[in-house]
Structures are given as structure tokens and as C-alpha cells.
Amino acid sequence: MKEFYLGTANISKLKEFQEMCPFQLLLPENYISPEESGETLHENAFIKASYTYQLTSKPSFSDDSGLFLDDFPNTLGVHSADFYKTTENPLKNLLQLFSPDSTRKASYQCVLCFYLNSSEVYFFEGKIEGSISFEPKGSYGFGFDPLFIPRNEQKTFAEDLLLKTTYSHRKQALKKALEFVA
Questions:
Q1: Rounded Cα distance, 47 and 34, in Å
Q2: Strand ranges of the sheet holding 24-26, from the earlier edge strand across to the other edge
Q3: Widest CA span of the chain, in angstroms?
Q4: Whole-angstrom Cα distance, residue 30 to residue 110?
Q5: What are the residue numbers of the active site?
Q6: Cα torsion angle, 130, 133, 137, 142, sign
Q7: Which candidate among 30, 32, 85, 159 keeps its CA 20 to 30 Å from the CA of 50?
């Protein structure tokens, strides 16, 4: 069985990846997330994966994900986690951005960086299109899941765990990675 170190301090993200991975995931001891100073998901995923590799000297991977809003392209995206962590009541504040004529179109996007060694660094992307609900619904998942409705569905990721495990942006990226590293 292959082992990879996952560069994250987010236990919910660890659990999500553990449910999807056919290999063992380990967390570095006393992991403290590095500053995500990148301007893109690729840059931030690389920062975390390379940092994790430096800590462990073992194959590592990390993701950076974001919620992208068609009507507000500069509001979340690569800064989704910052918005969520630093905004009081982030779901309510996000909903307040929308006007009655907003499209509410959104996408969850993920970039995985697999850092096998300094000369083998690979990126894999996943994306799920959808929309933002009018109110938070559901108790599964984390982050913006109570607001995100995948295209052609009626429920949020947080209302139906099967939706997230079926359509997840992380799952799409991981599937590409697994096909590559198999």
C-alpha cells in the first residue's frame, strides 16, 4: 500500500480524502499550515505540498480549493478559505452579496499537487459547476457546502452526502491523480 503525507491542518478535509483514497494518508507531526501566499490554486497547492515534503522527506500532496462566483469573480476563488475564516457568519455574508438579478452561478474548483520529490511534481484539477442556494441547508460537509447546489440537482452538498461524494471537485482531481500514479 502506498503512503502519502497530506499537507493540511483541516481535519474535515483529511476525512474527506481518507474516504476517497485507496492509499494510506498520514499527517506530518505538529503540522502548521504554511502561509498560502499564492495568487492561484496551483501556487497554493504547491506551497503546501512542497512544505509537507520538506517536513517529511516523503511523497506528499495537498490541495487548494475555492468557490468561484460568476457574478463576483474577485470575492472568493483562491481566497475562499480566508473569507470563511475571517468573516463573521461567512454563509450569511456571502448570501448578502447577491441581488435579485444575480445569476447565482458558481463552481467549486480544486487543484491537487502531488510532490513526489523535487523533480517530480504533478498537478491535477477538478471542477463542479452549480449555483448558490438562497439559504444554508444541510449539516454534512464543511465550508460553503450548505450553499452549493451542483448543476442539475436540487439539494446542497450539505443536504445530501451522496452528492458530494459523487460530484466533488476534490474527487475529480483525485481520480485523475490516481490514474496517473497507478
A1: 7
A2: 24-26, 3-6, 60-69, 105-117, 120-132, 148-150
A3: 52
A4: 25
A5: 64
A6: positive
A7: 85
Q: Which residues, 6 or more positions from 38, have their beta carbon under 8 angstroms from its beta carbon? A: 44, 46, 47, 64, 78
User: What is the average pLDDT score of the chain?
Assistant: 93
Here the cell at position 100 is 435579485
In this predicted model, which residue has the larger pLDDT, 13 or 111?
111
DSSP H/E element including 89: none
Residue 171: pLDDT band with limits 50, 70, 90: very high
Cell of 68: 468561484
Residue 24, number of CB atoms within 10 A of its CB:
11
User: What pLDDT score does 1 carry?
Assistant: 53
The arrangement of secondary structure in 3-181, i.e. its CATH architecture, is: Alpha-Beta Complex (3.90)
3-state secondary structure of 37: coil
Torsion angles phi and psi, residue 150, rounded to 5? -60, 150
Report the C-alpha gap between 34 and 23 in whole angstroms: 24
pLDDT (average), residues 18-24: 87
| Residue 57 binned pLDDT confidence (cut-offs 50, 70, 90) | very high
pLDDT score at 22: 87
- Vertex 64: Cα angle to 140 and 24 (nearest 5): 70
Q: Quick one: pLDDT at residue 11?
A: 85
Q: What percent of the chain has pLDDT over 70?
A: 99
